[in-house]
Amino acid sequence: MTQRSVLALLFDEVQSLDVTGPVEVFAGAAVQAGDPGAYRIRTASLDGAPVRTSSGLTLVPDTALADGPAPHTLLVPGGRGTRNPDPRLTGWLRENAPRAERLVSVCTGALLLAGAGLLDGRRATTHWALSDHLARTYPAVEVDPDPIYVRDGNVATSAGVTAGIDLALALVEEDLGRDTALAVARHLVVFLRRPGNQAQFSAQLAAQTARRTPLREVQQWITEHPEDDLSVQALAGRALLSPRHFARAFHSETGTTPGRYVERVRLEHARRLLEDSADGIEEISRACGYGTPEAMRRAFVKTLGTPPAEYRRRFRAPVQPQPAH
Predict the structure, then answer these.
(1) How far apart are CA 67 and CA 131, in angstroms?
(2) Distances (CA, A) of 27 to 23, 35, 184, 194, 221
(3) How far apart are CA 68 and CA 87, in angstroms?
(4) CATH class given for the domain over 4-188
(5) CA gap 262, 283 in Å, rounded
(6) Does the active-site annotation cover 107?
(7) 203-315 maps to which CATH number?
(8) Most Cβ neighbours (<10 Å): which of 80, 130, 239, 250?
(9) Of the residues 33, 65, 107, 155, which is catalytic?
(10) Which InterPro entries does the UniProt entry name for this protein (predicted)?
């Protein structure tokens, strides 16, 4: 079996989970594949000295960046240390990162890649809170703030923190197959796998939580009953408000209209059912409030650019019991 070397970059104020999340995925994949050499994982700092993470943990690298050959996969994590990085780090990336066969960033690690000119002319993502900063600071980068990860050629960038695990699982699936990636996901008790184009936020997180109790209860009702009548009139009745007052208050307190919130909840629910259940398209369309498969198809094509059947084909993860290891 092909051995792929993985080098994780370390620096002061790195986000520890940006490093350990993907590393655990790659290490677990080697175990699940029955080949301890499937991935050869090493960590490196500028001078080989230990680094202190943003949470206060100390990580001891295997080597200095100047030592050793170029890796197959270079993992560039994020963290507070990416805001004002050591110029030597940016310089090393500019000179050496192009030699890696695969360049991967997690969270604000994209800022390091962009600072080294490695994202110029490429589509990329990062943590939602820094997307605008990345776009303003590096206008040559095509920043997409929504997906949990983006792949552009041999460069892959991911969103905040845990999205690095999703990206690592996708890479393992590409390298070693779906069964191995699925086994790793089950062992880590995470989903296999959130597709890269899935939004960083769920509908509930993307919208603000309303201050007033009746509006918060309506938000919860929408989430729990996507198949119900969720018209403004019906929702206003639940909140004991007039439709006009309800629509104005909902937008004011959540930052979105009732209609858009309902659309996002229904789409999110339909995606989960397509990925995780064996229900038919017609059954899912009814369960999510679309009424007909055609209505659901239009919603998917409009938002995701793909019909439900194709979405299921690409992203459905078969559910099979597997013992813990």
Answers:
(1) 33
(2) 6, 10, 9, 20, 42
(3) 21
(4) alpha beta
(5) 19
(6) yes
(7) 1.10.10.60
(8) 250
(9) 107
(10) Class_I_gatase-like (IPR029062), DJ-1/PfpI (IPR002818), Homeodomain-like_sf (IPR009057), HTH_AraC (IPR018060), INH-QAR (IPR052158)
